[in-house]
From TrEMBL:
Name of the protein this chain belongs to: ATP-NAD kinase
GO MF annotations in UniProt: kinase activity
Cited Gene3D superfamilies: Probable inorganic polyphosphate/atp-NAD kinase, domain 1
SUPFAM superfamilies from the UniProt entry: NAD kinase/diacylglycerol kinase-like
Top-level taxon of the source organism: Bacteria
Keywords associated with the record: Kinase, Transferase
The species this protein was found in: Amycolatopsis thailandensis
Lineage: Bacteria, Bacillati, Actinomycetota, Actinomycetes, Pseudonocardiales
Amino acid sequence: MGEAVAGIVANPASERDIQSLRSALRVAGVGRVMVWTEAGKIIGTVRRMVDAGASVLICLGDDGLMRAAAAACGDVPLLMMPTGSTDVLPEPTVAGLAAGLLATHQVDADLVTNRATILEVVTKARREIALTDVSVSSESQWGPASLTELYCTFAVPDGIGLSSIPGRLCPSPKSTVDGVAVSLGPVDETPYVVQAPIAPGEVRSVGVRGWSVLHPGVRVDLRAGGGSIALDGQPHFVLRPEESAFVELKPDGPWCVDVRAVMAEATRTGLLLGRRPKGAFPASRLADAPFSG
């Protein structure tokens, strides 16, 4: 077996985190680390990393960078570290150790990766993906107040962002392949009004007409002609009045690395012990103080 290879695609402002990732990857036994920090060309860069033998990819940047990496990584496990995320993210050194243990096949990928669902938006001229949500605004200038449709890959009660809207009404955990479709409208015209934290420090009253389960493989026509579409909360493109589009929940998104699961497996098998007694690694247990021996 040749040397283990890992790829890092990151915002150039994340130099300190990149160094932490590189150091930890080396400690875990990765022989070659490819790094890309330039703006643009992410899809082509990730594909070249895959072709060069990368067995794990680490993505550190904004949602646009995450989407590009997810679109190009194929079946290579992807460890996403979105900057500005309100989720609790792994510290880069720990993330690097986890990615390195996976790249060197010291842990079984089947035990520590999960296949994400994605949303695909298709028009006559383009095909785009979103990792979390697709929203439709009735105005060409996208804005939360003019939203009419929302589609989410998951929705949790303690979430933030647009997915917090269904998260307050019809939670759908990440562990299921189903998503959520929500019909929105003005607060004075809808039967439900949700107080949703759509962004850090911003809680809005959102009018909801209704919601339903979004099943994988079902194409839903968007009533977006003359309006605009946002991917993962970021305005992305405007549709002409006569232009059609549809959204589809797809179960074949990237294989995402669960850092906590990797480190738990490494602990269970004693991978990170510098020295241990001969024989089987004992089951975890706590001993009462004072310790003997």
